[in-house]
Amino acid sequence: MSRRDETIFALSSGALPSGVAVVRLSGPESGAAVTALVGQWPEPRRAALRTLRAGDGSVIDRGLVLWLPGPASFTGEDMAEFQVHGGPAVVAALLARLADLPRLRAAEPGEFTRRAFLAGRIDLAEAEGLADLVAAETEAQRRQAIRQSGGALSRQAEAWRTRIVTMRALIEAELDFPDEDDVPGSVSDAVWSEAAALLAEIETALADAGRGERLRRGYEVVLTGPPNAGKSSLLNALARRDAAIVTEEPGTTRDLIEVRLDLDGLPVILVDSAGLRDAAGRVEQEGIRRARERAAAADLVLWLSPADAPVEPERPASGVPLLVLRTKCDLTAGRPDDRSAGVPPAEGDGSGALGWGPAGGGDRGGDRAGAGMGLPVSAATGEGLDRLRAEIVARAGVALGRGEDPLITRARHREALTAAADGLRRALSFDTLPLELRAEDLRAAGDAIGRITGRVGVEDLLDVIFGQFCIGK
Ligand SMILES: Nc1nc2c(c(=O)[nH]1)N(C=O)[C@@H](CNc1ccc(C(=O)N[C@@H](CCC(=O)O)C(=O)O)cc1)CN2
Ligand SMILES: Nc1nc2c(ncn2[C@@H]2O[C@H](COP(=O)(O)OP(=O)(O)OP(=O)(O)O)[C@@H](O)[C@H]2O)c(=O)[nH]1
Ligand SMILES: [Mg+2]
């Protein structure tokens, strides 16, 4: 897909109809397209109101036209924009007109940004940051994306890579001019202490518990419990919409139902699932299998159990934290024998603000299952929902690294830095090997870091990375 002599166009604004729609072009024919559609040339980088015409001279729309000559443009190429009324037929007529012009074609996903990368206007990590910015649904995601698109990771990666380049240069010098003036070995001693310091920095960046990646994905909370416990009702109450079917029949939910929430700027994915029980038909059994599978991979499992029933949580196989909720507390409130409507124990359990036990993810040992435990909630009255939200926000804040600004936001970055750390570790540990071989490990470490910004061999990655963008970006 390196047909860079072609001029690409796409609708870069969102779903139609919209107030205004932006159609962008990039490539050598952008200027010719402006001439073809509007005749009178707009001043560079100034919006001009023009009549856009079809091939037969009929009017498509009146809209703002921008002529953005390269290389000082987003892609570095000549660009143009048509900002028209956002009606589906207006946009269809405009796109059809552009498609009729010679050497113009519709852009592929991410192709504008890819061209910006190929022109050296942005690097690969910054391009990924732009993709994340477009995908960001919450404030915390937006902040992370703005930092990365502004070069936070790129600058750090380049600084690290430069240090490795310097180390290699010192080693080369020692190899080329041994024992000139210097105490033999003194240069490489300095190199190895620098390598150890660099390794420590990279290890610190890696030891972030995956917070940057988790923030991109969202904090996943799976609702489980026996059938009819009120899982779907609670999901609907938290989502403030009727996302899942609720009936008095046990076994209502079979499919996993996801809703994405913005809780205090944090992306939280709530997943409703089939109630867990043994006696169930084929369809429900499959639902239960999926429920268990999803719970095992969750960041947090909510075990829902009606306030008047014993709590017998089924722990996910993995060490996922588990929080017990006592549902339908409106039905038991005020009963003399009710111990669940009281204030839950306020002791911390190490992972969240409050602990309503039993232990989640091995953070506490004792199984204190009994009628008196768990956070009382009611989907019917809303009781307990604020505390539940606060608890989820506290835990998500820790897991997603609120206020921590991790550098790594993708598996790709982690793999590169892990490879770099491995290279540094090899170079440091084989101190009996010839200097040439240890320098080779340093080179591998530098190359691994170089892949983050795309300075080193990334051709094979480009289709994967830019293919995930939306069209028009
Ligand atoms: N209408 C419109 N809005 C948009 C964009 C766009 O393409 N069109 N963007 C696109 O994604 C984003 C803005 N990003 C941009 C980044 C660089 C340049 C650019 O032309 N840079 C030149 C000139 C800078 C200047 O004039 O100061 C340069 O860096 O040399 C333009 C937009 C968001 N808003
Ligand atoms: N009074 C009261 N009834 C509730 C509450 N939450 C749920 N219910 C009722 O309990 C029944 C079951 O609710 P669901 O939300 O479908 O329960 P579920 O856990 O999703 O059930 P399955 O999908 O079958 O596993 C329905 O009749 C709900 O109206 C509540 O907070 N208070
Ligand atoms: Mg349900």
TrEMBL record:
It comes from Prosthecodimorpha hirschii. It is an enzyme of class 3 (hydrolase). (6S)-5-formyl-5,6,7,8-tetrahydrofolate binds at residues 24, 81, 121, 473. Exhibits a very high intrinsic GTPase hydrolysis rate. Involved in the addition of a carboxymethylaminomethyl (cmnm) group at the wobble position (U34) of certain tRNAs, forming tRNA-cmnm(5)s(2)U34. HAMAP family: GTPase_MnmE. Belongs to the TRAFAC class TrmE-Era-EngA-EngB-Septin-like GTPase superfamily. TrmE GTPase family. Residues 334-375 are annotated as: Disordered. Its cofactor is K(+). This is tRNA modification GTPase MnmE. Pfam families: MMR_HSR1, MnmE_helical, TrmE_N.
